[in-house]
Write a structure and sequence with these properties.
The protein has about 300 residues and is of the alpha/beta class. The strands form 3 sheets. The chain has a 6-stranded mixed beta sheet with strand order 6-7-8-3-9-10, with helices on both faces. It is built from 11 helices and 14 strands.
């Protein structure tokens, strides 16, 4: 086995509908790995299989060389589901101590670990019962419980979706701090979060991995690039002409600047000045940049979603 997670030909069907359709993927040990995809792409189903909460229809999944869902795999894993559930009559510290006991964490170790985790997620000193928590507080507690067994692999399903900006920043910083010490599988559809903390990314669409690599590989090697144009004397003809050009994917007006997604930056650099000259439009600014993660993501998944309801 290689990597913290290895998936080979993984499929999952709900009736006749395929949620996963032959997923092959390796997550390197120590990586903060972004698992991207639109709702319904198969992300949550993959995480459920890795945690032994669902069975694959075919294919294989390993966690540190052990079959997914096995006792050894579960002992090495911490998991935050997209909608965590709690005993709402407990306090946060009580719930974490209870969770630690399920993993067999020694009492003295658990006491110190619970203290550190509650401080880390901003719940230290909170005596309110969990039933009185806001959604964001429950999400913070979910991150803490996923770490209570000091896992080698931390799987997070949309961990920042319910957080305010401060809470989101704190959780992302915590995730970043784990790089090299704990493997993190970070499932989300928030592209900015991935760009902030992840070093490697896989994009899932319609139950298949459609891209896999470092952020630099995905954005630098992708066909989509952007140019920004600021011009003089445009009466709308330039916008129409750009939309008709075969080397242009999309055009957006941002104030006085046109943001143009292009398929070939060399052709764009050659054809744009010629196009402006033909239209008699003056050029004030021309800037070129590599594709953003959003450009890559939208080009890969478009408006499509998978066949499952979970994500």
């Amino acid at each position: 086995m290689t990597g913290a997670i290895e998936l080979v030909g993984l499929t999952k069907h709900y009736g006749d509908a395929p949620a996963l359709d032959g997923v092959d993927l390796v997550v390197p040990e120590g990586a903060v790995f972004g698992f991207l995809g639109p709702n319904g792409a198969g992300k949550t189903t993959t995480l459920r299989i890795l945690n032994g909460l669902a069975h694959a229809t075919s294919g294989r999944a390993w966690v540190f060389g052990h079959p997914a869902g096995s006792r050894e795999a579960r002992a090495a894993t911490g998991f935050l589901p997209d909608v965590p559930g709690y005993y709402e009559w407990m306090r946060a510290d009580e719930f974490l101590h209870f969770t630690a006991s399920l993993f067999g964490v020694e009492c003295g170790v658990a006491t110190e670990r619970v203290k550190v985790l509650l401080e880390m997620v901003g719940l230290a000193g909170v005596s309110t019962r969990i039933g009185g928590f806001s959604r964001g507080m429950k999400q913070r507690l979910g991150v803490a419980q996923a770490l209570v067994n000091a896992p080698r692999l931390l799987m997070l399903d949309e961990p920042t979706s319910a957080l305010d900006p401060v809470g989101r920043r704190d959780i992302l910083e915590m995730i970043r701090s784990l790089r090299g010490r704990t493997t993190v599988l970070f499932s989300t559809h928030i592209l900015a979060d991935v760009e902030r903390v992840c070093d490697t990314v896989a994009v899932l669409a319609r139950g298949r991995v459609v891209a896999h690599g470092s952020l630099e590989q995905l954005t630098g090697g992708h066909a989509a690039h952007r140019i920004a144009l600021a011009v003089e004397g445009d009466d709308g003809r330039l916008l129409d002409a750009l939309r008709d050009a075969p080397w242009v994917r999309a055009v957006e007006r941002e104030g006085e600047t046109l943001s143009v997604a292009v398929t070939d930056p060399e052709v764009a650099g050659r054809e744009t000045p010629a196009l402006l000259a033909r239209l008699g439009i003056g050029l004030r600014r021309f800037e070129s940049a590599e594709a953003s993660l959003e450009d890559v993501f939208m080009d890969l998944v478009g408006g499509h979603a998978g066949n499952e309801a979970e994500g």
